Amino acid sequence: MDLHKKWWKEAVVYQIYPRSFYDSNGDGIGDLPGIIEKLDYLQELGVDVIWLNPIYKSPNADNGYDISDYYDIMDEFGTMEDFDRLLNEAHKRGIKIVMDLVVNHTSDEHKWFLESKKSKDSPYRNFYFWRPGKNGKLPNNWTSFFGGPAWEYDPQTGEYYLHLFATKQPDLNWDNPQVRQEVYKMMKWWLDKGIDGFRMDVINLISKVEGLPDDREGEKKGGLVGFKYYANGPRVHEYLQEMNREVLSKYDIMTVGETPFVTPEIAKLYVEYDRNELNMIFHFEHMDMDCSGSKWNVKPWKLTDLKKIMYKWYLALKDKGWNSLYLNNHDQPRMVSRFGNDKEYRVESAKLLATLLHTWQGTPFIYQGEEIGMTNCKFESIDEFRDIETLNFYREMKEKGMSDDSILEILNKRSRDHARTPMQWNDSENAGFTTGKPWIKVNPNYKEINVKKALADKGSIFYYYKKLIQLRKTHPAVVYGDVQMLYENDEKIFAYTRSYGNEKLLVVMNFSEEEVEFCAPKEIFLNKPELLISNYEVEDDIQQKIVLKPYESRVYKI
Ligand code: GLC
Ligand code: CA
Q: Is the pTM of this model over 0.90?
């Protein structure tokens, strides 16, 4: 058991979306000097690691996920000197930095792609997937994650290139060993600079089935077509093991792969210790709980589904691998609006979700603003959105004849822009994010919800997070303890114990707006439990039966 103690299991990660974090020079765009200015704030919160969304040179078709130079910094974000300063200042405060690694695709403005499109016999041609049309049609029927076909025609050579995401994000051909060597070289360059790991963007899509076959079944079903030919593709483990051998194993770092379309059985292949691939992955099962077919098709979610998913993942990886824990990120709606109540119980439910995030087994990932309970934004018209996925969806739905109101209603639940509105620092204009004009709308609730207010209130969500993070440092059971579920089939109560050595904790949470009764198991009742944290005032000792208020959460040491 102790053999598997690792710093990245004990760490709490804070995700920064630099564009929306803090603007230091008034151009309306968050930047690296802005992050440096806020490092003391993050130190106060107590996080151990920052994961930076992409900061590399990019024409920003997909906010930095389209990289034109892996060795340079995005103009709007600053310079390499700024980055070095950020890394140094973070390290001084005991905070590590994990970078986003986006290598399933590059920008179409990357020099490799510019070279590859020049001619069919360019030495870079094989860095990407170039194919001639088939009988006057596209090379296959795959569709893009951002809508439309996954192929774009280039008149210069009369062929198409593959892009699983935007047309400005051509897919790299990982079957070409030169591509892999270039990626490893670049990773080493950053690691030698002293960064502390990578979050790997859609890393399980890098190996495509040879021949890139048509997906007839997928086409009949509708939705995204073709993924069965590249999600967890035939050579992905070979490539990740090679990457581990040549790069990762040489450094003491944290790696987490973003992996859509994985079950726990598939995940084991990426994270089991003896496989030597990745430390953790982000799965999507709980993100798919409240939609059917596609992310845009929203349905209510059930607490029992969330519990089943989390328990299943815990059991599957127990003692053999490690889970990541997240409830939102830059691609997802705000967790308090989605899984809590962002109106009368905003504060309570944000704390309740935080309790789950920090006391389940796995490494917690906090998304910027989550620690002050930032909510989804109300977008009034399509002009207020910036995200390429959102804008493409809007266009497609318009073409299908859907009304603006109906599309807006969907986007107001699902758009990635909910996560991307600026961080709310104070109650001055633009939430103190910028002195200029922000690149995207500020959530109008910033006067009520902001960092300044949170820091001035000992009962705020911020200080609750701080305390939870401290609990992970002082109670090893929070990190390493085994999970035992209680109340498994209950639709309102989420409760479990965590045991490690002779330490045992009890976590009880009421995921509903009503009061509910919780009956503690006898052994707990007998042993005079000590309350470690709760989101309401709790006066009494724990009785065998306790009444939990709406969204109440408590953690006891028993
Ligand atoms: C990942 C990123 C997302 C991006 C996509 C393409 O899903 O999280 O933001 O748009 O990959 O790189
Ligand atoms: Ca700026």
A: yes
